[in-house]
Design brief:
GO biological process, one term: lysine biosynthetic process via diaminopimelate
Subunit structure: Homodimer.
Bound molecules: ligand LLP
Radius of gyration: 23 Å
Number of domains: 2
CATH architecture of the largest domain: Alpha-Beta Barrel
Strand content: 15-25%
Cofactor: pyridoxal 5'-phosphate
Protein name: Diaminopimelate decarboxylase
CATH class of the largest domain: Alpha Beta
Pfam families: Orn_Arg_deC_N (PF02784)
CATH topology of the largest domain: TIM Barrel
Shape: elongated
Distance between the termini: 44 Å
Helix content: 25-40%
CATH superfamily of the largest domain: Alanine racemase
Largest sheet: 9 strands, mixed
Length: 426
């Protein structure tokens, strides 16, 4: 996070608060959110994309306090399940600022979104067009919708988080003609208001050329729709997926750069196609919340394995950060509770779960005197860590603490064994 530094005795201080104080008060593991950092990233996106709408992708991390923060910062919100919608609404997010995604929204979820009056629904299948048409007709409402287009871009990221190549479950294929058919079907349904097209090519993307190809292809479809039906769709959403730095090797674009590039390509393509430039929106999740959080763990055991490397076991693991095991993601780690001048050694930070894939940080140099009781911080865990956390091995999920101006505020409490047992009704 932006507001982290070493204090006088070498321990990390976040937004004016010593991490040892956070650990003493809330226990470990704990996700520590630098609130001003999160807010400043919202503002960076909002000022770079000042004439566009910025939807925070809630799947990265959602709780009521964060909904309020992003709403205060003028963001819109993307949700993709009834559960995320419920959190958003219960935090007072204005429904008209919510977009509803998902490749398999249930009839109940669609009905709830209509009843709440969400600002837009992103259509993902022909069944969904039929379902939403029926529900809207029953209710006498005319929801605003986008059609999600699969543009056939191979995004350079992990296979599981790329979403625009042809062979996957999201959206309507452009190449196969389904996207055009879907747009025409929606235009023919007078109870649906087609606002535009949507494309999301994947996540943790650094190469902006994927967005350029995608923008060009959706605008080509937009021109085909105009030619066939005489309508120019007023909006275009280019999705999220902007990469963040997990280690010093990653070099992400600034929101300013992204805004410039996306606008330039959309304007150029609109000129070629003789289209009016549509109102743009984007959906960053990771880039807003990812860097604003670090996980604080306590070291339990330290094991040197035949001089190959040292295994530093912490009190969490794949249940609070599945990303290393699932995507082979790279993280870094640092001893947070003190400074050390001892030579570094090659360490692997592992968790307490019963499998050897339970790795938090694959390779990191930690001081050779790393020992039980030390606090270890793993930065960049704001996105897709708490939101993908599990109870594997009946490990209760950690709390989230927001720190600002030297004060800590619990925003998601730690799960307890009682919480776990409460579900076990057999
Ligand atoms: N919009 C749509 C339609 C999406 O599907 C996603 C992410 C986003 C926006 C936000 O993407 P972001 O800006 O956060 O990259 N669990 C994976 C990431 C899955 C992303 C799913 N969709 C991970 O931990 O890397």
């Amino acid at each position: 996070p932006r507001n982290v530094a070493r204090g006088a005795d070498g321990a990390l201080v976040v937004a004016g608060l010593d991490v040892r104080t956070v650990a003493a008060e809330f226990g470990t593991p704990v996700y520590v959110l630098d609130e001003d950092d999160l807010r400043s990233r919202c503002r960076d996106f909002r000022s770079a994309f000042d004439t566009e709408d910025v939807y925070y992708a809630g799947k990265a991390f959602l709780c009521r306090a964060v909904v309020r923060m992003i709403a205060e910062e003028g963001m819109f919100l993307d949700v993709c399940t009834g559960g995320e919608l419920a959190v958003a609404l219960s935090a007072g997010m204005p429904a008209e600022r919510i977009g509803f995604h998902g490749n398999n929204k249930s009839v109940a979820e669609l009905a709830r979104a209509l009843d709440a009056g969400v600002g837009r629904i992103i259509l993902d299948s022909f069944e969904e067009i039929d379902r939403l048409t029926a529900l809207a007709r029953e209710r006498g409402v005319r929801p605003r919708v986008l059609v999600r287009v699969t543009v056939g871009v191979e995004a350079h990221t992990h296979e599981f988080i790329a979403t625009a190549h042809e062979d996957q479950k999201f959206g309507f294929s452009l190449a196969g003609g389904a996207a055009a058919t879907a747009a025409f079907r929606v235009l023919d349904e007078d109870v649906l208001e087609l606002r535009g097209l949507h494309s999301h090519i994947g996540s943790q993307i650094f190469d902006a050329s994927g967005f350029e190809v995608s923008a060009r292809r959706v605008l080509d479809l937009q021109a085909q729709i105009r030619d066939a039906r005489g309508v120019e769709l007023p909006e275009l959403d280019l999705g999220g997926g902007f990469g963040i730095a997990y280690t010093t090797q990653d070099d992400p674009a600034t929101p300013q750069d992204l805004a410039k590039r996306l606008r330039r390509i959309v304007e150029a393509e609109c000129l070629v196609q003789r289209l009016a430039v549509p109102h743009l929106s984007i959906e960053p999740g990771r880039a807003i919340v990812g860097p604003a959080v670090f996980t604080l763990y306590e070291v339990g055991t330290v094991k040197d394995v035949d001089g190959i490397r040292t295994y530093v076991s912490v009190d969490g693991g794949m249940s609070d950060n599945i990303r290393t095991a699932l995507y082979d993601a790279s993280y870094s780690a640092t001893v947070a509770s003190r400074a050390s001048t001892v030579e570094p050694l090659l360490a692997r930070v592992v968790g307490k779960h019963c499998e050897s894939g339970d790795i938090v940080v694959k390779d990191e140099f930690l001081p050779a005197d790393v020992q039980p009781g030390d606090l270890v911080a793993v930065p960049g865990t704001g996105a897709y860590c708490r939101s993908m956390a599990s109870n594997y091995n009946h490990v209760p999920r950690p709390p989230v603490v927001a720190v600002r101006d030297g004060r800590a505020r619990l925003i998601v409490r730690r799960e307890t064994e009682a919480d776990l047992l409460a579900l076990d009704v057999g």
